[in-house]
Amino acid sequence: IISPEVSVITNIGYDHTQFLGDTLPEIAFEKAGIIKKNTPIVIGEKQKEVADVFFKKALEMNATISFASDKKYDVETDLLGAYQKKNGTTAIHVIKALKGFTVSENQLHKGLLNVVKNTNLKGRWQTLQVAPRVICDTAHNKEGLYYVMHQLASLPAKNLHIVLGVVTDKKLEEILPLFPEDASYYFCKPNIPRGLDEQELQSKASHFGLLGSTYNSVNEAYLAAISNAEKEDVVFVGGSTFVVGEVV
């Protein structure tokens, strides 16, 4: 068990429920386990359903607690996802909570502008190709996909092609309504044991007006989407970290 300089929880959503619980307070309680004695804790978002869980745990551990959403910063970063503004604000709060480290405003600014260069982070609103424009993002829960789908909708596109695959523990009734109906879908199964069968995904997606074909692999689905797309179109790859991992 490590002894952190500061603990961080971004937000609470319905993810990994088989391990963490079925309600937001249950999930928050499990995640609050990273709050350590006399160690600052930064929470990305103050959610009324779970804030008391964190306050109680922080009090028990004599940990200074702060919510990044209480004080937002104007974040400039090379991470292009719209949701990265919130993540950047959380990161700044974490830096300011660190004890014994001096990070200047200039260093902070420079670091946020060079996240991809310094970390080689992939799959976060990453452009894989320009014409047609191909974008991938690892967002895989309701909270993350909400922002990604809104950003996707803002892009100029003659036609939209979506390569989609998920894992079996995903609550499809929560995430599928976030996807646009006016798109061509390429359903696939990520190459892991708990990947959801592409035909089952196609069937479930059809209940939400999401129509398309199935493919035997992520690569086949990806190549089909690229082949069918015109230069003015947009291709999006996502639904699972594992799907994106097979194309980056």
Q: Can you describe what's shown?
A:
The chain is α/β, with parallel strands linked by helices and 248 residues long. The chain folds into 2 domains: 7-119, UDP-N-acetylmuramoyl-L-alanine:D-glutamate ligase; 126-245, Alpha-Beta Complex (Protein-Tyrosine Phosphatase, Chain A), CATH 3.90.190.20. The protein is 37% helix and 14% strand. A 6-stranded mixed sheet has the order 4-5-9-6-7-8. Strands 1-2-3 form a 3-stranded parallel sheet, with helices on both faces.
- What do the pLDDT scores average to? 93
What is the strand tally? Answer: 9
Task: Give me the CATH superfamily of the largest domain.
Answer: Mur ligase, C-terminal domain
Alpha plus pi helix count: 11
Order of helices and strands: EHHEHEHHHEEHEHEHEHEH
Low-pLDDT stretches are none
**Corresponding CATH architecture of the largest domain:** Alpha-Beta Complex
How can the largest sheet be summarized?
6 strands, mixed
Oligomer: single chain
How would you describe the shape?
Answer: globular
Radius of gyration of CA atoms, rounded to a whole number: 20 Å
How do the helices and strands line up, and which of them pair or pack?
Elements: E1 7-9, H1 17-20, H2 24-31, E2 41-43, H3 51-60, E3 65-67, H4 84-97, H5 105-113, H6 115-119, E4 126-129, E5 133-136, H7 142-153, E6 160-164, H8 172-175, E7 184-187, H9 198-206, E8 212-214, H10 218-228, E9 234-238, H11 241-245
Parallel strand pairs: 1-2, 2-3, 5-9, 6-7, 6-9, 7-8
Antiparallel strand pairs: 4-5
Note the main attributes of this structure:
single chain; 248 residues; UDP-N-acetylmuramoyl-L-alanine:D-glutamate ligase; Protein-Tyrosine Phosphatase, Chain A; six-stranded mixed sheet; three-stranded parallel sheet; 11 helices; 9 strands; 37% helix; 14% strand
